């Protein structure tokens, strides 16, 4: 049994944009700059690592900048952290280093989960990304989206699967809290998180039914691979999954947060969910018997309205005001937050989001005031680094 506070790590994807606010295919050039500084992995190095040709690589974004699916993106990961102060410091450090590398090639980075302005996404070179582009065609071609993935340590796969079974009903609330992609192809999508809609076009995405045990989880992954539809296990895009490379549960439902502190709040909430779920499992509390269709409906609704409308309450399966559902989430994890020393910071972070709104709300306010989507991007660049 884990006796210390569970470690946590965060991966973020960022848009590379020019001064006009348009995403530009300068991610690979920025990575060349970062690699010369010992802070990044070039596209070629990343591709070798993904193929297993480079033992020093591994394709993981921890502690360096790496490529993503599109050349208009950069990705990074924090260290394995114990305290949220360390998560915050790493997020700000790597956002800054990504921006410095982008500045050197005439661009900036913005924590936007989709591009407000119309853009033609360009695929990153490399064997794996090329195979994805050829296999999934328009789904892959249009997938210029930026997410935030939170890893939390688990003792083993059995504990990890028990956690997956118990956190699934709460994950749509995290989507609502982090919504940061209201615009798509130059127009308002009508969704607070349109990234979630675009992402769920992948055949392996979304919620799962309950797993009997870790063996059942791994059988499902094997069955998905056996269909020869997805290219590898890295494309097992469940809302939450067991990490293939780390002893962690990886929660993948969040938009990249516009503000770094909101990503810290997300990390604290995910760690609280994991610790709460593991404690329930050890105490023999059964996982909520909610069908995946209902979870998917709750996720769609969270993507649609963010915090501006009703969400599906995990305890009742009925609509309730977003603030009440978020408050229920905070109450659910509060003992775990207190045990980790996170209660005050996470509660304050949640209150701040409820008070001022999400990244999606800020984007829409800027557009309402200016009528200019490039102004939305410029405001996002500023917020990314505050």
Automatic annotation (TrEMBL):
<comment type="similarity">
    <text>Belongs to the glutamate--cysteine ligase type 2 family. YbdK subfamily.</text>
</comment>
<dbReference type="Pfam" id="PF04107">
    <property type="entry name" value="GCS2"/>
</dbReference>
<dbReference type="GO" id="GO:0005524">
    <property type="term" value="F:ATP binding"/>
</dbReference>
<dbReference type="InterPro" id="IPR006336">
    <property type="entry name" value="GCS2"/>
</dbReference>
<dbReference type="GO" id="GO:0004357">
    <property type="term" value="F:glutamate-cysteine ligase activity"/>
</dbReference>
<feature type="compositionally biased region" description="Basic and acidic residues">
    <location>
        <begin position="35"/>
        <end position="51"/>
    </location>
</feature>
<dbReference type="InterPro" id="IPR014746">
    <property type="entry name" value="Gln_synth/guanido_kin_cat_dom"/>
</dbReference>
<keyword id="KW-0067">ATP-binding</keyword>
<keyword id="KW-0436">Ligase</keyword>
<keyword id="KW-0547">Nucleotide-binding</keyword>
<comment type="function">
    <text>ATP-dependent carboxylate-amine ligase which exhibits weak glutamate--cysteine ligase activity.</text>
</comment>
<dbReference type="GO" id="GO:0042398">
    <property type="term" value="P:modified amino acid biosynthetic process"/>
</dbReference>
<feature type="region of interest" description="Disordered">
    <location>
        <begin position="35"/>
        <end position="64"/>
    </location>
</feature>
<dbReference type="InterPro" id="IPR050141">
    <property type="entry name" value="GCL_type2/YbdK_subfam"/>
</dbReference>
<protein>
    <recommendedName>
        <fullName>Putative glutamate--cysteine ligase 2</fullName>
        <ecNumber>6.3.2.2</ecNumber>
    </recommendedName>
</protein>
<dbReference type="InterPro" id="IPR011793">
    <property type="entry name" value="YbdK"/>
</dbReference>
């Amino acid at each position: 049994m884990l006796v210390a506070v569970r470690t946590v790590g965060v991966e973020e994807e960022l848009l590379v944009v020019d001064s006009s606010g348009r995403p530009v295919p300068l991610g690979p050039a920025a990575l060349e700059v970062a690699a010369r500084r010992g802070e990044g992995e070039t596209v070629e190095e990343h591709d070798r690592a993904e193929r297993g040709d480079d033992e020093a690589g591994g394709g993981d974004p921890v502690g360096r900048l790496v490529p993503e699916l599109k050349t208009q993106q950069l990705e990074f990961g924090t260290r394995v952290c114990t305290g949220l102060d360390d998560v915050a410091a790493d997020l700000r450090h790597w956002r800054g280093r990504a921006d410095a590398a982008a500045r050197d090639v005439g661009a900036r980075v913005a924590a936007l989960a989709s591009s407000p302005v119309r853009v033609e996404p360009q695929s990153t070179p490399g064997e794996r990304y090329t195979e994805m582009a050829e296999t999934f065609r328009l789904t892959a071609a249009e997938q210029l989206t930026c997410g935030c993935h939170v890893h939390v340590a688990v003792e083993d796969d059995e504990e990890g699967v028990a956690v997956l079974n118990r956190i699934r009903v709460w994950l749509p609330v995290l989507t609502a809290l982090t919504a940061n992609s209201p615009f798509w192809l130059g127009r308002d999508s009508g969704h607070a998180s349109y990234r979630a809609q675009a992402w769920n076009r992948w055949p392996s995405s979304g919620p799962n039914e309950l797993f009997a045990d870790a063996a059942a989880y791994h059988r499902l992954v094997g069955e998905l691979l056996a269909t020869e539809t997805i290219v590898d296990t890295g494309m097992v895009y469940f809302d939450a999954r067991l990490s293939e490379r780390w002893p962690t549960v990886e929660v993948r439902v969040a938009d990249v947060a516009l503000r770094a502190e909101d990503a810290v709040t997300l990390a604290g909430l995910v760690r609280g969910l994991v610790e709460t779920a593991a404690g329930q499992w050890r105490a023999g509390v059964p996982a909520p018997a909610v069908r995946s269709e209902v979870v998917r409906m709750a996720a769609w609704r969270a993507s649609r309205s963010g915090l501006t409308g009703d969400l599906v309450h995990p305890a009742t399966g009925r609509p309730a005001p977003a603030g009440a559902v978020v408050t229920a989430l905070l109450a659910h994890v509060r003992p775990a937050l207190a045990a980790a020393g996170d209660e005050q910071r996470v509660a304050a972070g949640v209150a701040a989001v409820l008070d001022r709104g999400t990244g999606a709300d800020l984007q829409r306010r800027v557009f309402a005031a200016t009528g200019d989507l490039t102004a939305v991007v410029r405001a996002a660049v500023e917020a990314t680094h505050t």
